[in-house]
Design a protein that fits this description.
It is a single chain. The chain has 9 helices and 10 strands. It is α+β, with helices and mostly antiparallel strands. It folds into 2 domains: 99 residues, Outer membrane lipoprotein wza domain like (Outer membrane lipoprotein wza fold like, Roll), CATH 3.10.560.10; 91 residues, wza like fold (2-Layer Sandwich), CATH 3.30.1950.10. β8 and β9 form a beta hairpin. α1 packs antiparallel against α9. This is Sugar transporter. Keywords: Membrane, Signal, Sugar transport, Transmembrane, Transmembrane helix, Transport.
Length: 265
């Protein structure tokens, strides 16, 4: 009975350590890190500041529509038609160059690096009034990011994605990419973020509800979301108990066959 006993112990241990549980795959769990009588979390989201290679959509309106056509290379109609691929904005939008400038009609180069879209709106309006329009023109300037572009790699559907929203949290971004695979490690998702001085890697535990308080819960343009595999996958274990039993049984069968083959030689 001893060999069988130890075999059962080994099998049971493998099942406990190899199976992927609910704790591995459920998002935003309450892990005792906040008061149990309240699940209200204060989200941290700072205004995004424009960086090099960002593409801006800028629209100018005034009482005389003909006067503002030169400032609007991308019409609202073309913008709506290109929401699937963002190609119109790529060719006709305003790209922030390596010096942090955009080339704007009539006004020439405008420094926008490190500005929020609200600050760019105010700056463009100020320059238009100074160089081209009068106060009576009643101009109105709208500045938006030309889609929030991000990438996903690892244990998630890999690809480059664009969402036409001002704010996108990491859960929305992952859902848009098709969700993390069962074998993905949700406890340590990497967010690779671009900064003026280079890129930095940040970590966020998406199985903990306090992730909503993280400064990386809301993604930014050009973020890379990287999902590592669980150690169970790296070890080749199954995703479920039945898969693990099948794997162990197969290994055991091979070992037994090898043992008797060698013994009979």
């Amino acid at each position: 009975m001893k060999p069988n006993f130890w075999l059962y112990c080994i099998l049971f241990s493998l099942l406990l350590s190899s199976c992927i549980t609910n704790k591995d795959v459920v998002y935003l769990q309450e892990k005792g890190t906040i008061a149990s009588d309240s699940l209200q979390i204060r989200e941290l989201s700072k205004p995004y500041r424009v960086q090099v290679n960002d593409i801006l959509y800028i629209n100018v309106k005034a009482l005389d529509e003909e006067l503002v056509n030169i400032f609007n290379p991308v019409s609202q109609e073309n913008t709506n038609q290109n929401q699937g691929g963002n190609s119109g904005l790529y060719f006709n939008g305003f790209t922030v160059d390596m010096h942090g400038d955009i080339k704007f009609p009539i006004l020439g180069k405008l420094q926008v690096l490190g500005y929020t879209v609200q600050e760019i709106e105010a700056k463009v309006k100020e320059e238009l009034l100074k160089q081209y329009f009068k106060e009576t023109a009643q101009i109105f300037v709208t500045v938006k990011m030309a889609g929030l572009r991000y990438s996903t790699v690892g244990e998630i559907s890999a690809g480059v994605h664009t969402l036409f929203q001002d704010r996108v949290n990491i859960i929305d971004a992952i859902a848009n990419a098709g969700d993390i695979k069962v074998t993905g490690d949700r406890t340590d998702v990497l967010v690779i973020r671009q900064y003026p001085d280079g890129q930095k890697i940040h970590h966020i535990d998406l199985t903990d509800i306090t992730a909503m308080k993280s400064p990386y819960y809301y993604i930014q343009p050009n973020d890379i979301i990287m999902v590592k595999p669980l150690k169970r996958k790296a070890l080749g274990a199954g995703e479920t108990a039945s898969q693990t039993i099948t794997t162990v049984a197969s290994i055991f069968s091979v070992l037994v066959s090898t043992y008797f083959l060698v013994k009979n030689l």
